[in-house]
Structure formats: structure tokens, C-alpha cells
Amino acid sequence: MTNGNATLVVKDLRKKIGKKEIIKGLSFELKKGEVFGFLGPNGAGKTTTIRMLVGLVKPTSGQILLCGYDLHREFSKAVRQIGCIVENPELYPYLTGWENLEHFVRMVPDIPKNRIKEVVELVGLQNRIHDRVSTYSLGMRQRLGIAQALLGKPKILILDEPTNGLDPVGIREMREFIRFLAEKEGLTVLVSSHLLSEIQLMCDRVAIMAKGEIIRIDTVEYLLAEQERVIWKVEPLEKAKALLEEETVIIGEEDGTLITHYDAEKVSLWNEKLVKAGIKVSEIHTKLPTLEDLFIELTEGETID
Amino acid sequence: MKVNVVKIIAALAIFSSGLWMAGLGLAIKDQFFYEASSPVKKISLENVAEEKEDGFHIVALGDSLTRGTGDESGKGYVGYVADELQTKTKQTIRVKNLAIKGQRSAGLVSQLQQIEVQRQIKQADIILMTIGGNDLFQSGEALSNFSLERMNQAKADYLRNLHTIFKTIRHLNPDAVVFYISLYNPFNDLTDAKTTSAVVREWNFQSAEAAANYPNIIAVPTFDLFELNVNDYLYSDKFHPNKEGYKLIGERVASLITFTEGDEKND
Amino acid sequence: MINLVYNEMIKIVRKKRLLIIAAIIAVLVALFTYAQLKRVQSIQEQLGTTDWRAQLQQQIIDTQNRLNSSGLSEEWRKFLQIRLQQQQYYLDHDINPSAPGAPTFMRMFAENSIDLFIPLMVMVIAADLVSSEASGGTIKLLLTRPVKRWKILLSKYIAMILSVSFILLSLGALSYLISGVVFGFSGWTLPLLTGFSVHGEELDTANVHLISQWKYLLMEFGLVWFVSLVVGTLTFMLSVLMRSTAAVMGIMLAALISGAILSTMVSSWESAKYLFMVNLRLTDYVSGMAPPINGMTLGFSMTVLAVWGLAALIISFIVFTKRDVY
Ligand SMILES: Nc1ncnc2c1ncn2[C@@H]1O[C@H](COP(=O)(O)OP(=O)(O)O)[C@@H](O)[C@H]1O
Ligand SMILES: [Mg+2]
What we know:
Oligomer: heterotrimer
Number of helices of chain A: 11
Domain SGNH hydrolase-type esterase (chain B): 60-248
Helix content of chain A: 25-40%
Protein name (chain B): Lysophospholipase L1-like esterase
CATH topology of the largest domain in chain A: Rossmann fold
Helix content of chain C: 55-70%
Structural class of chain C: mainly alpha
Order of helices and strands of chain C: HHHHHHHHHEEEEHHHH
Organism (chain B): Paranoxybacillus vitaminiphilus
Strand order of the largest sheet of chain A: 6-7-8-3-9-10
Strand content of chain C: under 5%
GO molecular function (chain B): phosphatidylcholine lysophospholipase activity
Mean pLDDT of chain A: 85
Bound molecules: adenosine-5'-diphosphate, magnesium ion
Pfam family, one (chain B): Lipase_GDSL_2
């Protein structure tokens, strides 16, 4: 099933800590140039999974292939393919941004010197790059973190909650930057978040995680489209409800409106039936659910913020 | 700029690592694999005797009395003698107190074999000494558990040693006046004072006789100083003098010492 | 590998650790120089002589008097006994063990700081080498490079060794330069005695031989270096095991101070000699001081230290390469 252009392949990944199984058999693949989202509440196992993907934590079992290299067996070659920020962008505060980048360049044998300048320009830190990191704002640290991750021209970029703590402008910039990297530079990006709005706006595909398992993987459009709803503004409500219930399932009722699933072929028929029965249909419109609705549905109401 | 600092430090660190490693190697070689070859040369008196500091040199020899045990100021009679002499002369008084608590005559004999002790005696202008108290009072608890035989044995040993001591000192330094401070009876106040006093008097007599055999060795009596009101002059151990007692001895010795003209203070 | 070590050296230098240590050393050396000057002056005043032979003789007499007083602890008596014999030996062979001069001060400073001060300085460097990366989160960046974990740890270990060497170099240089201003800079070629060995209360002088002070100093600094490396390695291990630099320092501090206290009172607790912290005073074997526990020798102490250091090194590497990083 492994796709020809799959850059990151995970097969039946598990992690036990003590007796507790934190990650319970994840399998997924990432394709070149896509932005893949990990969505789940706090404690779902996103960070743990990412730590295993970058080699910080050893999986109890399972396999991780990065651009075809097995992380376990060919650690250096596999890790060479990725750039990452795990949790917060922690750099050496007593060094300047530039020195931090130099530090990491020295650890990889084949990065040309001018690469530092390139990534600094890419993340737009030219003005402050020679200041100590301890004087940076969180947004600047986040950018420096990304610069650091991009130094080795990775094929896969792994970012754990990259927008955490950023202001709305910062979040938008980050989102655009990630899309830019995927579309223009052809990177595969794996982003985790507990914020649905964010994932919804920047990802091509999403894996929904809860309690160490992936509940669902699909493209954002498909996940949403499948759940498209129709909202009926009708009078009298009770009679309309009885009639619609004969045809489909009423999934909600909200201040004088009824909500049903969307079915492109049948909606007009249902409307005709209502009108014939003398019900006043003042408004019919379709609505895409937010991922939030979806998420609550899928995880059966687990809290999320 | 900054990179250079790091490089300099790193270079120094590498250099010093080598240096310390060599030191460690040397230490291992020297400490574990040293082959004893020629033994280290001992000092000889001829090589060191000449170096002499200016001033008036007092060398004090003997036991706890010379050490000053019982005087809380730590001076002892030696200190009071030195203080007194300092008022009489322009020269710096230099005291070398070589007395050891509990020392007996045999101990002093062997102490006098040490080159450095000999050197100091050689350079001395006067010599103060007490010896014999421990031979007498501690040899078989002589006075409390009186045994004539043991006493006589102790006295014979002591007198032989005393002769050796005087002879050695005179040999090393023919000129310096030696003040041999004789014994007092610390038990003067106790019930058998009569017996003990007789023993001490006899002991002092024999010692003075010995001293008389050598030029410039003066036996200084202290018996009379402690005869009346002995407890006023004794330390709480009822054996050693206290500050006042030492002052008495010091005054007596100091009064015996005069300076040659020109050294005297004229103020 | 050179790049990795260079990275570590940059971090150590930029954290200003070496600078702070050099400053502490300078202050302490100045303090000790002053104290030593005062001591020399007060001895001269007290004895009324500047003649070292007379001074040493007086010290011998003082020691003999102390030995004759009651209530001395057994350890103290033994210590005095050995020192007495040694001083007498120096005197009998007409060698001044404390001839004034910067090299003599260096030697005394090294001998007195080998079991506490120098280990403390080494600890300051080694304690946060790994733990600060863990607590600061930068370990995640280090370990997601295409470099094997053991190489990263080795680079840190080498940086630790280099820093230790550098600290000793600054200690030597600073103590020479600062004390030299007061005591004069000469005295490298003065003869000293070494090769004493202690059997019970007796000082064995069969292997005693003369050696010039510069050689003696080099030997002592070599031993100080060895001790520092062992202390550094132990600290390094704790730094690998723990995230909190403060905890690492706390544990090492407790061990070192307890060692300093223990070595004055363990003579009846025989098996304490296998603790690393009572074996730190290697220079005492060179100068011929009595060891804290009967039967301890330079070879024994070096072996004990080496075993501790090696064990710590092995544990460090196993834990660091195997462990999950959170
Ligand atoms: N070192 C650890 N030891 C034990 N349990 C852990 C450890 N790290 C994380 N966990 C547990 O694993 C689960 C997943 O955590 P995490 O991967 O951090 O979740 P997320 O990043 O999705 O918020 C949580 O229930 C957490 O309590
Ligand atoms: Mg997380």
C-alpha cells in the first residue's frame, strides 16, 4: 500500500510507558507537498508520537520510515530528512540567533555556510539575528526555531503546536508560511494542534487523535463535505418535523429551524412535500459543519479547548 | 572576535591537558617506580653554623617549667627574663625556647644530638634550662610512694645525664653563661613536707655540685622562693608555678645577667 | 567530532562559566596570599627570627609539646606524629619545605584546594553540561541532528576535560602571578623531598629523594588533574541522570563536604576508604602526610578514584544513549 511518493510512513506504532499504553498502534502515510494535521485534545498522544518520529523516544514496536530510511536502523540518514520543533522552540538564550544557527550547522556535515543567510531571510529575522535569543519575543523564537529546522533542507518538516502562544497576526503568518513551504518548496509538513480552526485552515489532510489512537484520517474537504447539513426555516415546526422524519433523520432543532443531513438529489423533493402540505418554508440553506462539531461527534464529546 | 576567544581558550586547554597528563605520568613514575639510589645528604653542623642573625640570643632548654606550663600568659620565666633584659639593652632579644613538656634528662641528652639544636646552642649568648623535675617527681612516684632504692637509681641516672648535658653544651658553646634553674618543692604545704623538702634539697645540692664542675654554669636556686606561701605561687595543678611564681623565677634570673658596656641602654 | 567539541566549548565560554571561575580563583588566591603573608609575619614576630631553620625547629618543639598533652584524639596524634617526623627529616637534611616564593605558594595552594575548592570549581562546569540542555529543552534540538547520541555525549565529555585543564591552568597562572607580587617569582629549582611512606605511626624514609620544585609542582598538578577528572566525571554522570542542575550541584556538594569532614574522622571506619571522597587528597601521598585510614596508599586511592570514574562514565553513556527524551 506504500505509495511511491510517500515521504513519511508509520506502521503500527506503539509506545508503552510502564504498564500504560500511550500510543496504541498508529499507521499513516504522508505525501510529498502536503500539510498533514494531527488533531486531538491535550493528552491525546500527539507530542509523544512526534517524539517517536524524530527519534527522541524509542517506540515499543512499529516502524517509522523517513524518505524510505528506517529511523531505527539508519538513524543518521533518516533524521537527515527531517527538520522539527518539538513543543516549544527552545534555543540557547545566551547565544545570538545567528550563533544558534551556526551551532546546528556545525552538527551536520554537508550544509553550506550561506544556508544560514537563506533561512534567516526566509523566516524574516534579518534585523534581529545578531541579538541574543534571550531578548527575542515568542514569535521571533518560533521563527528562529523554524529557521533552525529548515537549515538542513529537510524533505519533511515536523511542527508540534507551532502556533501555540502566538498572537492572531502571528498565527496567520505562520499558517501562510507553512502553506508556502508545502506548495512552493514541496515540503511535507506534519503539524499538530489542539485547535481545530487552525488545522482546518492550513491542512490538506487531518488525522483525528484521541487517547492514543487515530479515529479518522481524511482530507479536510471530504471530512467536512460528508457532514454537510441542511437548515430548514419552517412553520409550523411540529408538522414539518413529522413530515421530514418520514423522509430523513432530524439531527437538530434550533430556534425555529430544523437540521437534517444534506442529500443533493432529495432536498428539492422534501421541499416540495412540505410546501404541498401547506407548510410555510421561508428559508433553506446548507451549512458546512466546523471541524469542532465533527470532532465532538467523533470523540463522543471529549472536551477540547 | 568572540570565536577567537573560544579558539584561544580551546588551544590553551589542549596544551594544558597535555601538560597535566605529563605531570600525572611523572607522578606515577616517580611515586611508584622510584629506585632508591643515593640517599639524601644529611646536614652537617659546619655547613650551617655560620649563618647567625644579629641580636642577643637566648636558648631555653628543658621541661615544662621552661616551657611555661601554668602561666596563662604563656611566657613562663623565660619570657619574663627576656622582657626584663629587653629593658636593659639596645640589642634585639631573640628567644629560642626548645623545652618540651614532660622531658627528662635522658630526653634532653638526645635532643642535644640534633644538628639544629646544636646550631642554636652554638649561637646562644645565654642558655636557660630546667631539667630533673620529671626525673625526680615522676620516677616511680618518688615522693608519694617513697622508695629509697628507686630514688637513688633515678638520681644516679639523672646525674650522669646532667654531666653529659653540661659537657655537650660547654663543648658546643664554651662562652655562653648557662643558668641551671634548680628545683623547688611544690609539696611544701602537704603533711610530709619535711621528707619531700629534704629530698629536693639533696637533689639540688647534687645538681649544683655537677654544675660547679663546668665554667660559667650557674645553678640558680628557687627553693627559697617557694618556701613561704607556696600555694600563692602554684598553678591549679599544685605542681607548676603560676604567673606570679614564674615572675619570681624570672626576676631572680634576670638580676644575674649584665651586659657588656656599649650594649647597655642609657635611658 | 571537532565541530561538536567546538560547539560545547562555545557554550561553556558564552555561559561565562570559565570567567566566573577564574574570578573566584583570583579572589581566593589574593585572599590566601594575604593570609599567608600575615602568617609568615606573625611567625617571625612570635619567634623573633627570620631563620627558617629556627622556625622549623620551633614548630617541631611545639608539636612535641602538643603530643605530650593529654586529650589528643588518636587521629590527631598520629597526624602530628607523622608531621613531626617529616619536619625533623627536612631539618636534618637542611631543606626548607616552605621557602618563600610564588612556586611554593602555588604548591601549598594546590595541596590545600585539591579536596574541596578545585572539585567545587570543576563541579560548576560539569554540573550543567547535560542537565541544562535537558531542563532548557535544547536537548531535543541536539538529538534530532544526524549525529549518534554517543558522539554528542562524548563531545560534551571532551569539553569537560578541556575545561578542567583550563581551570587548572588558570589556577596555576593566577596563583603564580598574584602571589609572586608578594613573595617573589623565583623558587622553581628549590629542592624538595618526596617518597615518604607512612606505616602506622612511623614515617618510612627509605625511598625519600630530592626533586626540584618545578617537577614536584608538575607532579602535583598532574594528580590534581586526575582528581578533577574523576570529580568531573561523577558530576557529569549526575548531570546526565538529572534534569535539575541545582540537584546535581547539591548532591556533589554534599558528597565533597562530607568527604572533607569524613577524612578527619574515619580512621576507625575501615571500609570508608572505598568512598571516592576520602581519597581525593592525592598530593598528601607525594608530600608524605598521614592518610585518613591506615593502609591507604597513592596506588590504592588512584585505583578507587579510577573505578568510580570509570563506572560513572559507563553509566553516563548507557543511560544517555538508551533513554527516551521527554
Ligand atoms: N514521560 C511520560 N511518562 C508517562 N506518561 C506520559 C509521559 N509523557 C506523556 N505521557 C502521557 O501520554 C499521554 C500523551 O501525552 P502527549 O503526547 O504529551 O499528548 P499531547 O501532545 O497530545 O497533548 C498523556 O496522557 C500523558 O499523560
Ligand atoms: Mg503536546
